[in-house]
Write a structure and sequence with these properties.
397 residues, alpha/beta, Aspartate Aminotransferase, domain 1, Aspartate Aminotransferase, domain 2, 2 domains, 7-stranded mixed sheet, 4-stranded mixed sheet, 17 strands, globular, cytoplasm, succinyldiaminopimelate transaminase activity
Length: 397
């Protein structure tokens, strides 16, 4: 197929055409099992009937209206998020990057309103990922995504992930926000420690700093809780959400409290498409399924089964040195003999009819549907093992 898109993506050699549940068919009719979930987006698999029905019903009523107005679907989704989280108010946008952009802007605006212009520094983590806008890529601690885009926004400091002492040394009265992913997704599926998150909360309170948790990838049931920070007994000031929030339909959200929200006074921030009725209607349908206790319990159970299977394959074939993650966000770290070849592993898996991801160059990532069935999980394992054997033959030391 001729490509008319800019060359910032290196597309796989297949073109998906249709999908259902955890199954995808390409334009040549070949079938794949999807354990990537559109990078943790398709939380309920592909073309879930409840989401289809919600979209079709809303499409016959109202697609878009100026943000001079609010709509029932947007208010209903915001109410669901408020009722089941720490939050009191929600800002809707279209993506994780936009949700984080809003979070960082709000943190600086809140500090400006209450403490003055000098309190503007953001502390984030090395190897963090928060999006591809200039602001979010600057807060993200990965120079490879920043190269060539200087000058970057100032007032951002990076510390090692899970380093309590480094955080304590970095935070000051000039800090306005500490930004953390409960699980660093893009850089290797690295869960935060409870000590790191709880210390961050304590230090933020001591220095009048907002704790911002990026839950774009970890939120909406991905870890077996509605939001991952629930595992750590930590209450944030701001949370960003996207990906699974719309079950495949683009939507993002920033959640915050009545203490912080007033700094987004009329005119301070906005989004033309944010909270549009189509996205919000699908989000409502997705929320009700994801937040059901049976779904969250299923995520925990299937995550344990998938991790156990990966450890068994790793032990048998010597390909994976470690398997880690929470719920159905799982990373398999390649053994030293296959260092930096995660991208090659993903390509080989696709040849065997399995869609998976990499997280950095050394971790194979799995983020399947939260509704992944036992049948589909069992069907995926021989495909994975076949991929492991081919990968070893082609890339073994």
């Amino acid at each position: 197929m001729e490509n008319y898109l800019t060359p910032n993506f290196a597309f796989a050699p297949v073109v998906p055409d249709r999908a259902q549940g955890s199954h995808v068919w390409d334009t040549e009719g070949r079938e794949y099992l999807d354990l990537a979930g559109g990078i943790a987006v398709n939380a309920l698999g592909h073309c879930h009937p409840a989401l289809q029905a919600a979209l079709s019903e809303q499409a016959a009523k109202l697609w878009h209206i100026s943000n001079i107005y609010t709509t029932a679907p947007a208010q209903q989704l915001a109410q669901r998020l408020v009722a089941h989280t720490f939050a009191d108010k929600v800002f809707f946008c279209n993506s994780g990057a936009e949700a984080n952009e809003a979070a960082f802007k709000l943190a600086r605006k809140y500090a400006y309103d209450h403490f003055g212009a000098e309190k503007n520094e953001i502390i984030a983590c090395v190897n963090g990922f928060h999006g591809r806008t200039l602001f979010t890529v600057s807060v993200g601690g990965q120079p490879k995504y920043q190269k060539g885009f200087a000058p970057l926004p100032a007032g951002i400091k990076h510390i090692p992930f899970n380093d309590v002492d480094a955080l304590a040394a970095a935070i000051s009265d000039k800090t306005c926000a500490v930004v953390i992913e409960p699980v660093q997704g893009e850089s290797g599926v690295l869960p935060a420690s409870a000590a790191f998150l709880q210390t961050a909360r304590r230090l933020c309170d001591e220095h009048h700093v907002l704790l911002v948790l990026d839950e774009v990838q970890t939120g909406m049931g991905r870890t077996g809780k509605l939001f991952a920070h629930e595992h750590f007994d930590v209450v944030p000031d701001i949370v960003s959400s996207a990906k699974a929030l719309g079950g495949g339909f683009p939507i993002g959200a920033m959640l915050t409290t009545d203490k912080v929200a007033p700094s987004f006074a009329p005119g301070t921030h906005g989004s033309t498409f944010g909270g549009n009725p189509l996205a919000a209607a699908v989000g409502n349908a997705a929320f009700d399924i994801i937040n059901h206790p049976d779904t969250l319990a299923h995520v925990q159970a299937q995550g344990e089964r998938l991790q156990a299977a990966l450890r068994q394959i790793g032990a048998q074939h010597g390909v994976f040195a470690e398997v880690r993650g929470l719920g159905l966000l799982i990373g398999a770290v390649l053994a030293d003999a296959y260092h930096d070849k995660a991208g090659e592993f993903v390509k080989v898996a696709l040849q065997h009819g399995l869609m998976i991801l990499n997280a950095g160059t050394n971790v194979v990532r799995f983020a399947p549907s939260l509704l992944l069935s036992d049948e589909d999980l069992q069907a995926a394992l021989p495909k994975l093992e076949a991929a492991v054997l081919q990968f070893k033959a082609e890339h073994g030391a």
